[in-house]
Specification:
Length: about 210
Amino acid sequence: MDQIRASFGPGHGRQGTEERHRVHVRERCGDREKKCRPRRAPRDFSSESDIGTQGVKAAIYDSDGLCLGEATAKSELLHPVPGAVEEDPERQVRSTCEVIAECAAVAAGKGTVRALAIDGQMAGIIGLGDDGRPVTPYDSWLDTRCAPWIECMRARPEPRIVRKARGPPSFNHGPKDPVVEARAPGGVRKRSAPSCKPGGYAAMRLCGL
């Protein structure tokens, strides 16, 4: 996160990243932009990030919607047991910081990054402790260990679930919650304990929470 703050200020060059991520940034409209746009005061920029299944991606845009650069960091999917597909939430946060910093470096000396937006995979969850830190890995939407709970929900209250959730039980939050609870330290997690999705967790960390 210090990497991001350093990239937002003027006069900072491109920041280094961990080799394993092999982050690539592509500047767009370099010479063409100079020819098409008159010289003007420093511009405002926004950066958008997506924590996807295959990788964490980011891009940076000016106030006219012109994309100036993109960055990608490859995801690391873990398969500790059959049917499991997990990710390390902290690695997801680090990757998000790295791609944002790479994009912010493109804007160095040209203006100010005014806003960040983060989204990500929606069907998986991260179990959190009382301190807001992960107590389980990210349980991906590709993880099929909650299949028995899906069948259980279909056998009993499915019509009620469909009415309230506007869809049938699937590999998402409802069936996954009991699985995440069982995988918390000691095998027990309070039912009131929080969980969140990768985009929400990364946003929380970038806000210093």
